[in-house]
Amino acid sequence: MATRVTSADVGRAAGVSRATVSYVLNNRVDARVTEATREHVLATARRLGYHGSPAARALRAGRGEIVMLLLPEWNTAGEIGRALREIGRQTTALGLACLRYEGPEWQQRVANLLGMVTAAAVVTFEPLSSEDQEAVASAGIPEIRAWFLDSPGGPHTTHIDQASVVLTQIDHLMDRGIRDLAFVAAEEPHDQGFAEARLAAFRAICQERGLRNDRILSVDDDLTELVERLRVWSKESGRLGVAAFSDFTAVGVLSAASAAGLQVPDELAVIGVDDARFASLTSPPLTTIKLDLLSEGIAVACKLATALELPIPEADSQRSPLSLIERSST
Amino acid sequence: MATRVTSADVGRAAGVSRATVSYVLNNRVDARVTEATREHVLATARRLGYHGSPAARALRAGRGEIVMLLLPEWNTAGEIGRALREIGRQTTALGLACLRYEGPEWQQRVANLLGMVTAAAVVTFEPLSSEDQEAVASAGIPEIRAWFLDSPGGPHTTHIDQASVVLTQIDHLMDRGIRDLAFVAAEEPHDQGFAEARLAAFRAICQERGLRNDRILSVDDDLTELVERLRVWSKESGRLGVAAFSDFTAVGVLSAASAAGLQVPDELAVIGVDDARFASLTSPPLTTIKLDLLSEGIAVACKLATALELPIPEADSQRSPLSLIERSST
DNA sequence: TTGTATGCGTTATCAG
DNA sequence: CTGATAACGCATACAA
To answer: Residues of A with CB below 8 A from B225's CB?
Structure first.
């Protein structure tokens, strides 16, 4: 194994001092280096395959170049994943490395983690435990909050709050003339937090509009209860509108409706969330809500740049974060 | 912001030298420190909230403590995710930090990355480009290969190869007396590599058994072609057996079967892969194959420990990596 | 048993 | 315009 190439090696090979190498490699404008020397150093560095030592640089600078995403146990397959990718892209543009930490449960482990990783900042998606918070603080690195679940109007609300997702679902169902609404979530632990936020919003919105808000069910692997409930709810109402937590849940609702002998969308309308790949593959194809969390990614990058005193990326032109995809399930 | 606490601070506060602090904190058995001093130093460190600087340690040790997972653009929602979590758990047990890098396309970016992150090792899931490979080599850190897609018998095959997944699907369908087989994949870029490997296996196995191996389709958002093909294939055969790439794809097949007026499982049987949450929610519930990649995680940890000269974790008792979940779609 | 001295690779300052 | 030097925080061989 070839021993690591240091800046001293480059300097020696190029016949200049380490300082000159450093100047050249960091493009320091204030340092006056002959163009010839410059190119020579550059060429030598490339020839030797020189790569600076991140550890040394971090030690020297007192700050690392890693942005660590402290991810909850979320399902990152859908729109959340797109937001994370955007955060990664923006971070890279800022000259930092974006790495994800998905500890099964990082209660109190953040301290250990920060003892091994020289981070420039951490991005959190949920409130940290007090020990974790203290660990971040005592490491002297900023915490960027991207709390997608924050309550609407809360200090860390980003562009989309969960309430407006449910609002859009309900608005659509009511536009279709439906007044009897139900909410169905899945007992998927990875989605727990989001499900609770949506459920609360459902209750609040229905109450506000004078509609029944107690038609609620959480679905697990067994559909029999859902089938039964759909039958009952449907009998009570003219036409039932189901706001499903996600497109997955909506698939369950479609199956249950079929088992209950309910026609979709005539007797039962269902709307999902996320515009998953299979949403157009169900029968009938799912009406759903597509979230665009790209702007969230940019917002995070802005906070990051501010905290780290880096040039702030420009916000994207205002795109609509929520859009309704109408198919035939409603 | 409180300035970082260094080991010198602890030494000063405890009235001992930096070296003593270092001895105590690293539990060096060969260093002879009074138990009293030991405890005093430990207490002082805790009181001041001392956490070592990873950068300094890495610089000194010449090696970082981060295991970087270089992830392809895979869907990490299913079984792959479980394998990754297991890798994380094992890595943590080894005293290292497991971080994931999901570059949208990290062609040639690995060099940059390694210029910012002091890694102990990288874990790859696909062959690296030659530049990337060189970057890893010149950084002097080991590359651990967890190439789940490696061809059976290949040097980096882990416990499960994609061919045996398809084999299990086909065996099950043939056990049901089905001789007319089809393979349906999804045009999901995140699953591309896996889909290709499975397709190749399907072709080979059918050929070997003297069955038709040209009933193959890749499904996108539009189901009309699938509906048409299922009709044709079904007409040609007594009972059609569909090996679906995943449970997602299987859902598409169920929809298409319904649209084509084919009874499941009497006229058409379908088997998926992954035992996704919704697999039991479809109508009829999906027969599927569950993969247990936990042992893969352990295997990776063993390679890691070997490369890094750390104590090697013991392999789990041999569990079956593949299991058939029989429901009513076959 | 504890303290001192040195080096890891960078970069910034200052003298040449 | 360039070269020497110090310091970042830690670990350890060696001296006391």
So the answer is: none
